[in-house]
Amino acid sequence: MTENNLGSPRIIVLSGPSGSGKSTIVNRLVEESPVPLLKVISATTRSPRPAELDGVDYYFLTGEEFDRRRDNNELLECAEVFGAGYWYGTLLSELKRANDSEKWALLEIDVEGAMQVVKKFPEAVTFFLKTPSEEEYENRLRLRGTEDEDKIKKRLSTARKELELSGHYENVIINEDLDRAVKEISEILINREAEFNARRI
Ligand code: ADP
Ligand code: 5GP
User: Fold this and answer.
1) Is the Cβ atom of 89 under 6 angstroms away from ligand 2?
2) Are 22 and 112 in contact (CB under 8 A)?
3) Ligand 2: nearest atom to the Cα of 40
4) What domains are defined for the chain?
5) How far is the CA of 139 from the centre of ligand 1 (A)?
6) Structure pTM?
7) Dihedral of alpha carbons 53, 178, 147, 18, sign
8) Taking the C-alpha atoms of 159, 165, 166 and 167 in order, what is their torsion angle to the nearest 10 degrees?
9) In 3D, which of 201, 27, 194, 24 has the Cα closest to residue 125?
10) What confidence tens digit (pLDDT) does each residue in 85-137 have?
11) pLDDT digits (tens, 9 = 90+) for 5-17
């Protein structure tokens, strides 16, 4: 499978620094999206966290398997996120899964991967999530309590670089009030779905 035989897939890209609320918003969209939507399961070479399941949270691959799939052109995009040596990528088969069920493919991916997607599919709807202030990423990360100090530092340093690229996104959403942010995203998706349907007629 290549990008070319997927036609015009409907793609939503959601990025933002660690702690900006991506997972929270993805969960809300999966439950209450106003448009048909499928959360894409990414491939990664990092190990599963205690509650994570293969094929549910990620496809957990060895480094060799990930390289093999990339060399075989099975990935839409990929990046080594947080400079920690672990790779993450979107499998083209996931786009096909969304396309076959006539749903938008929701990709929660980093900025480097997002730029690769937009290059291939310029009509992808892109969202960059921000918190109301820079300190708030750190507050939320610490409150979440899933990373040790070293990982928090790496994520905050990545956040600064990511924020510099937010201008490349079509929509920048400030996740101050969660309901408000979900509503803003939903309204944009409703409009894009209407445009998509109008083109099909
Ligand atoms: P990310 O996936 O971007 O790293 P999360 O979705 O895990 O971020 O959110 C980081 C933390 O911030 C979580 O504990 C989450 O419950 C909290 N959070 C998300 N959105 C908001 C919000 N609007 N206001 C306050 N806390 C939030
Ligand atoms: P985690 O906390 O799950 O280890 O890492 C999440 C980070 O990896 C997030 O910043 C997320 O956006 C990014 N990520 C997850 N899946 C993909 C993917 O398929 N491609 C890219 N480029 N980044 C991903």
Assistant:
1) yes
2) no
3) 19
4) 3-200 (3.40.50.300)
5) 10
6) 0.95
7) positive
8) 160
9) 194
10) 899 999 999 999 999 999 999 999 999 999 999 999 999 999 999 999 989 98
11) 777 889 999 999 9
